[in-house]
Structure formats: C-alpha cells, structure tokens
Amino acid sequence: MKNYGEELAYWYLRLNGFFVLDNFVYHQTQHNRNGDADLLAVRLPYVKEKIGGSIDDWDEELFSCLKEYDIAGVLCEVKTGPRPNLTKTFNNHKVKYALNRIGFAELEVKEMLTQNESNFMLQYDGKQFLKLVVSEYEVQSTETFLTFSLEHIEDFIFSRIHTYERQKYTARHFFPSSLMQYMMYRKDKEKSYRRDSHE
Description:
The chain is an alpha/beta fold. The chain folds into 2 domains: 4-150, 3-Layer(aba) Sandwich (Trna Endonuclease, Chain: A, domain 1); 164-199. The protein has 7 helices and 6 strands, in the order αββαβααβββααα.
C-alpha cells in the first residue's frame, strides 16, 4: 500500500500525463537482495484529454526539464522521513532495470547509462528518463537527481482540482484513491465556505 507521500506523487505524475507503476520490484541476482522503487512512470508524446489534458494543465516546473513531445520515463523515490538516505537510490543497476522495463532498446539503454553518474536527466534520440526524488523535508536537487517538495506536489494537485472543480468533484468517486476523493471534497467545501461568507 502506498503511503500518503507516495500516493500524492503517484497522482501528480498521473495528472501530468504519465502511466504509473507503484512499488516497482527490482529482481536481483541470487547473491543480492530484491528491492523496489516507489514509482516508475512513462509518458507518450501527444498526450491529450478533454478534462485536464491540455498543454496548459501540465506542471511548468516539471516540463522545464521534460520535452512534451518526447517519450519520457520517470524513476521516482518518495521520502517522508527527515534524513533520507539517497546514496544508492539511482545506481546503474536500478536505472538499467527501469529503462529495460519501460521498453527502451538496448542501444538506447547503453547510451543513457553512460550519462547516469552525472545527470538527473538521461536523453537519447527523442527519449528522456528523469531521476526524481519527492521529499517531505528539504532535499536539494543535485546533478544526479531532481527534487520536488511534497508541498509542490500537493499544490499542483489542488491547483488542478481548482481548475476543474465541478468536473473533478462530481467524478470524485471514480478516482480509486480515498486521499484524492478527500482532496476534492475539501476543495468543494472551501468553495462553499467562500460563497457563504460573501452572501
């Protein structure tokens, strides 16, 4: 089960046009332990949706890194503790495993991995792969991974709900997430409170 940070990050990626796997398992060799990544996501070019799926709906901060019309993958780790250990989060084995799972060709994987040690964004021939950390506590972005705060993620989701307030609220029970349903409920209550206070 996803914790609240992982669930917010999951819906952040979903609302930015990604298809998302949660608790993506790394199967190791017999001499190593298994492990998992919080989220692995892929986004195809020309994503479009009637409600919340136009170019103005995507997060500007995220798409200052991504090119909208390239195939994009994201390997995301969510940290809700005060002192996260990120030393092995994006090692070559994990990144290679994720690139293969998304479906990048061997040549693409090989070329991207040559960039792994020094870049949070791997790119090759119209394809991109972002190493992303979402953190409740302040964690600085580095050359090797990009960091978004949990607050930024939450603000984006609330902003999207606000933009499509009526549509999201009336469809809230179709979202398979009690957290998202609650956020839509809270936004509707805030709107009702503002309306009542001005009458």
